[in-house]
Queue: 2 jobs
Job 1
Amino acid sequence: MRILSLQSGTSADGIDVAVAEIEALDASATPALSLRPLLARTVDWSEELQPRLLAAIAGESLTPAEFCELDTRAGQEFAAAARAAAAEIPGGVDLAVSHGQTLYHWVDGGRARGTLQIGEASWIAEALDRPVLSNVRSADIAAGGDGAPLMGLFDRAWLAGEAEASGSPIATVNLGGIANVQIVSPGGGLVAFDSGPANCLIDAVVARATEGRQTRDTDGALAEAGRVDEAVLAALLAHPYFVATPPKSTGRETFDLGVVDRAVASAGSGAGSVNGSGPELPLADLVATLTALTARTVADAVRSATPTAPNRVVVSGGGVHNPAMLRALTAVLGLHGIAVTTSDAWGVDPDDKESLLFALIGFLSWHGVPAALPATPAGRARVLGQLTLTPGATLGRRLDGIAGLRLADTRLAGTLAEATIA
């Protein structure tokens, strides 16, 4: 079946759209799957909507009327992006999956209590005349899980066979706004959790310092020009999240500008920010320090999450386009003999991997397959998402699980995971 996926990350820098063809390779109740990407692109949010989304993500209060309008407008822009992409696929698509735009991920007492994504799915269903799966995290949270990170579902299906063949765990890291770490062990074992910030704090300090003229450290230029402030880095590393035991999840609501300002202030770096609204530290030094924070916390997570540390890490997400971040991560992991490659060396575009994950979730849910995440209590795996159905829609045949994932035209073509996901 042809599945269209839609999502916008915590940076709200655009709508990622992808279409993938996913098919069962045999008629068993636990088939291996093939996945072939057909289309992938990023569509800009409108100039009117993007700043409103960013303000809401940052915690700006919304009245019920404002929230209703924001949810509707986001759904309409998701729908327009979906309609344009589906028109390019001969025969159209069979199903859409919309992760939506996260506004808040509620964690209290070390547990996820709720999550909020917006972008009303009915507009997408209306635009495509196809069913839409949305709200993909909440069922797992209601069952006692964290609802995040979801990437482990893709990585276990994709890499368990390779881990088995090599006899060694394989780690993957997605560097979005938040960094998440997945470690797939021989036999299909999975550890997956958010390690902390990747780009979100860097983006936030750059946007504040430039009054919104820049929203990221393009090409890592600021980090390269700066010097790591070891006292500030130590203060940042003292955040309690980093010593919390996995599985765990987090978001911008935990790692915001206040975290940065308090760390700079406690390190004695003065008062008054680079633009007069927070602690003072040259912007390049602050970005270099936050880049080092990401590298250190990701590396610590990779090394400590399993009894046997992996000897290779596969990196994806927007952070792969930041050479300073990749160099910092490679340097720290290299001290421990752990090699770093990007997912394109394994046949998966780093910008598209998360979109392919949501397409896979769509296939699993359409066929009634529960998704067991590491934080999900034993025996409580749930089918993810809520369906907005259209006239004539019929669910696919029920499967008990899948035996692996073959990516078309990649280096791993022909390698299948042995572990059943159920």
Job 2
Amino acid sequence: MDGLVKGLLDVALGGNNNQNETKSHRDQLSTSSWAEVVSGEQDDDDRSKNNQNYAYQREEPRESGGSRPTMRPHKDLNEDYGRIQDNVQNDYEQSRWNQKEEEVGNSDGWETVKKKPSKQHKKVHLDQWDNFKRPPQEQQYSNEVEYGVDMEPSGPELQDLSKACNKLWELDLNRLQPGKDYEIDCAKGKKVHQRDDVAEGTLFSWVSEDVFKKPTFSRFCSLLDNYNPDQGVKEVVTPQERQEQEAFMEEISRTAPIKYLHKYLAAKGIVSESYNEFKRMMTSLWFDLLGRGGTSGCSSAFEHVFVGEIKKQGEVSGFHNWLQFYLEEAKGRVDYQGYIFPRRRGEIPDSETQLLTIQFEWNGVLKSVSSTLVGASPEFEIAIYTLCFFVGGEDNYVELGPYQVNIKCYHLGNKIGSAFPIAE
């Protein structure tokens, strides 16, 4: 009998050991796969360089249905150990989950719940962005757009802002094609006041790596880590960041939408006919620091419109760019929660839709309604918002290809306070 009991104990303990070995192996796989996730090392550098006062820094991974993230004290922890722990946990929670229902507890008083599918990691190679950190004399730009493209504004376009905006849409030669360059899953819809998460997965299923090799897209993305998202914190612009801003403006100034914008504004006597002066004006318009929420020098038109900010009272402000959304979603900082029902019945968005109104959380903070032009190039968005700022009003009802759009544009002194599209 003693031998039988001992044998059973050995089997039981052996089983436990096998389980422990399996778990250890699974953890090792999780840790190794994390090294290939987008911006893994750069994220740590960015946090230590610019975001030491950022309230959502090094947040705990948030479970489905959870609330605001909480800070994890890390001063007394070994930094490498903490990073490994984060990576293993995040890799587990953000890997592609299967669609099974998982039992929580046993059937005695416990309920069965369905966990939200993973926020799948996307890989983005950032190697080419290192070239943008070189001195100005070592920067390399793409060729000027060929003048075979008709960039002269016509009389009707000069008289009708909608026609001019639609011309910009036609001139957006870098606009992406759904299904070819990227794929989205709009999931389910909701009303603005609803707070339940109706999206099981991410908005972006994938984006082609070739997208990030496009010069204007690549330079745009390299600017996104230059800002502290807390609206009340003053920005510190380094000489290198200023160089990146000027280089981005130089790059997009070689494209058709920006050349058309200059010709349009010059024809109306709004800007100088000198293209170099125009580029300097554009850099100042979009990147000069502004005051918001009672703090001077804490924002800029570029940061607000494209990067996004978090107000002191816990609201997401701005953040209307799809590239920023994709990259933040790839890092697990954005939780897509469904699209907002369109005003017109029957116009349900799908994977081909390029004007979306959505709801999401960024760093655990809700953006109840936001709109974005999916696949539009950075130069197109800069051009159309600048055009509406100088020529239009607060509401600008225009046509962009198949879309009826209201380009909202707010002034903050002589700078752009905010600009974004609204589906009409």
